[in-house]
């Protein structure tokens, strides 16, 4: 299936939680029932204890930035869309230890640092498909909680 020139994956028992859980606003990931470790990318058996018993659980959607790159399609091919804009792709590590490769939005490359806090959000692609993206987690401290350092 193709959506706005983006190929959509086939939903299977292994991948459905990843592509559809954005409807709830939280990413859900397979977790081993026996050793409680996360299985991402999903597999038929646990990489740690070899169990085939999994549950699907939501994760916090919060984590940190590990690395990123700027992608510029115009550099790839002279026939690329002249209106194409550069975009950021990042590897993030969620609080649960799960690493994801995601589009990173709402920031410029020069503002990024390793360990910058991020959070996930989702773009609805139609039907059951929700694509996760990362954005910088703005840390807001109420003014009454700010203290002067002496």
Describe the structure.
Strands 5-6-7-9-8 form a 5-stranded mixed barrel. The protein contains 2 helices and 9 strands; from the N terminus they run ββαβββαββββ. Strand 8 (117-126) and strand 9 (129-136) form a beta hairpin. The longest helix has 5 residues, at 16-20. The model is unreliable at 144-150 (pLDDT under 50). It is mainly β.
Order of helices and strands: EEHEEEHEEEE
Query: Reading side by side through the largest sheet, how are the strands ordered?
Result: 5-6-7-9-8
Question: Which structural class best describes the helix and strand composition?
Answer: mainly beta
State the end-to-end distance.
60 Å
Rg, alpha carbons: 18 Å
The residue fraction in helices comes out at under 10%
Strand content: 35-45%
SSE layout and pairing:
Layout: E1 2-3, E2 6-7, H1 16-20, E3 28-32, E4 54-58, E5 62-71, H2 73-76, E6 87-94, E7 99-105, E8 117-126, E9 129-136
In short:
This protein is mainly beta. The chain contains two helices and nine strands, in the order ββαβββαββββ.
């Amino acid at each position: 299936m193709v959506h706005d020139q983006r190929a959509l994956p086939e939903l299977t028992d292994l991948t459905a939680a990843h592509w559809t859980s954005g409807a709830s606003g939280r990413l859900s990931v397979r977790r081993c029932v026996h050793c409680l470790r996360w299985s991402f990318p999903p597999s038929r058996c646990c990489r740690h204890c070899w169990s085939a018993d999994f549950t699907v659980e939501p994760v916090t959607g919060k984590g940190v930035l590990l690395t990123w790159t700027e992608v510029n399609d115009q550099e790839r091919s002279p026939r690329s869309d002249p209106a194409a804009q550069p975009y950021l792709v990042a590897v993030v590590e969620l609080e649960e230890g799960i690493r994801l490769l995601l589009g990173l939005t709402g920031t410029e490359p020069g503002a990024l640092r390793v360990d910058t806090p991020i959070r996930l959000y989702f773009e609805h692609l139609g039907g059951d498909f929700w694509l996760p993206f990362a954005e910088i987690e703005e840390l807001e401290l109420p003014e009454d909680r700010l203290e002067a350092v002496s």
